[in-house]
Structure formats: structure tokens, C-alpha cells
Design brief:
Pfam families: RabGAP-TBC (PF00566). By secondary structure, the chain is an all-alpha fold. It contains seven helices and no strands. The longest helix has about 40 residues.
Length: about 150
């Protein structure tokens, strides 16, 4: 799926479908690419839900665009209400994703700083001299004479 957008679905969909996608893309803009991707998922929703693990899902996602024989059906789903997506929707989703990534990045940075501080404190504690010897400990706490 990661190569769907940069390649504009070339080598992913059959030629007739690619030409229809391009036609819509040049007329309506980038939102069509998102709609086509969502339509592909919608058309294969049942098969995806039946998968048992992520590897099986990945394989299915790689295969199902190549099986799209009827470009007219793909376009119908693409522009139906079930896959409706505006530029405003895409902008909002991008903003939400950016904010999530930013929070995650800040959290990871804080965790790394805390880990570094713990390691630094641990090194200081390990190298600190022991304040008393075993004999001093025995005299002080056990009352033994040595």
C-alpha cells in the first residue's frame, strides 16, 4: 500500500482502472487518491475482516488491487457516500495525525532523557566507594569483636 500514492496506482491496478483514477485525479485533485484507496479497502472489507494476522492482511492488501477488473464498480464505490471524503476532512485528519506524531515524539524524547538520567545515576552509585568495610559492619551492627 505504501507505493500506491507515489505511483498513482500504476503497477497496482489494471490499466483501465489506472486511467480512470488519473482522469479523476487531474479533474478533482489529490482527494481522489484517498477515495480510491478507501474504496479498495471497502470493496475488500469482508476478506480483510476474515484474516487472522497482520501478515495475511498485508498479503491481501498487496493482491486485491490487481484483482479489480471492473473499473466502473471501483469508481462507483469511490464516489459513493460510504467513501465520501473532502479536502477539509483530509486536512483535519492530517492535522490530527501530525499532533499525534508530535506528542509521541515528545514522549519518546522524555523517556530517553529519563533513561539516560537513570543510567547516569546508576553509574555514579556503582562507582561510589563503600563507606565501611565488612569488619566495621560486624563491629557496628553485630557486636562482634574482631
Amino acid at each position: 500500500m505504501s507505493h500506491w500514492f507515489p505511483l498513482l496506482f500504476v503497477d497496482v491496478l489494471p490499466v483501465e482502472s489506472v486511467l480512470r483514477v488519473w482522469d479523476c485525479f487531474f479533474y478533482e485533485g489529490s482527494k481522489v487518491l484517498f477515495r480510491v484507496a478507501l474504496a479498495l479497502f471497502k470493496l475488500n472489507e469482508d476478506a480483510l475482516l476474515r484474516t487472522r494476522d497482520s501478515l495475511e492482511q498485508f498479503q491481501l492488501v498487496q493482491e486485491f488491487p490487481k484483482k479489480m477488473i471492473h473499473c466502473h464498480h471501483l469508481m462507483e464505490v469511490c464516489f459513493s457516500r460510504t467513501v465520501a471524503l473532502s479536502r477539509t476532512d483530509i486536512g483535519e485528519l492530517r492535522r490530527q495525525h501530525y499532533n499525534r506524531r508530535k506528542r509521541r515524539s515528545m514522549m519518546l524524547k522524555l523517556q530517553n532523557q529519563q533513561r539516560h538520567q537513570r543510567q547516569h545515576v546508576g553509574v555514579r552509585n556503582r562507582t561510589a566507594p563503600i563507606p565501611h568495610s565488612n569488619r566495621t559492619f560486624q563491629r557496628a551492627f553485630l557486636g562482634w569483636r574482631t
